[in-house]
Amino acid sequence: MNHAQAAQIIQANQEHFNKVAVDGGYDSNPFVEQVTRQIAEVIRESFPFDEESTVLLDYACGTGQMSRHLAPYTRQIIGADITQGMVDYYNQRVYNQGIPPDQMRAICLTGTDSDLDGQKFDLIVCSQAYHHFPNIAAVTKTLASLLKPGTGKLFVADLMPYDTSIFKQHGQGQGHQGHGHSHDQGHGHGHGHSHDQGHDHGHSHSHSHGHEAHEESHDAHEPFQGPAVVRKGGFEESEIQTVFTEAGLVDWQFIENAASAEMKNKRVELFLAVGRRPES
User: Which residue range is the domain that position 107 belongs to?
Assistant: First the structure.
């Protein structure tokens, strides 16, 4: 993917997710809420949370659904996203709940090393975002570098392989493969950032630019399709394991059915991949 294509993906993701934020995010989507809750429960069972010390990065945080599920078990949660609208929505909800910013806040990623001020995290969660990234290897390396050496763990949840026909509308074409975000400097998230230097943010979905793609529904509350989705059809375990290994992560774990829910009368399953940053 060249820089021009990456820039188009970034812009498409930002436009799409700013609209989603204005519409209230995915908070009202029962599928997203169900699988997010299930994934959060598995993460809680898989990591020794300490509400006095655990610092968590919710990468590609969106409106903060995952953050809200895990916040009671942490000392601090930082959400990170490339979409300002999502970040504003996240922070407004935190403010409305009376939670201090030093305990929970979101930042809008710019693709620079100063975004997180060199902070390291006990765990990083990236849920339902890898299918937005044009370069999951770069994103994974970036996230691995943000973990505390020796103990920090990365948790990535996304779609198991699935039949893409469940997202077709009224028998129309092949849909949108998506527009992820790609940042050459690397830092991720939101829905589609990919940085060549390893700081990848976001969700990226490759996008078919045929006419049929533009005829499909652009419902902002329909996950896993549309102009913000780069990757369609889910991920094989071997693909995720490869990028974890290349990022230097160890203690590989892959939970095949970490979450599942009905969508368009079909069962869709999500995996949870886990890796730890070694001491050196």
Answer: 3-276
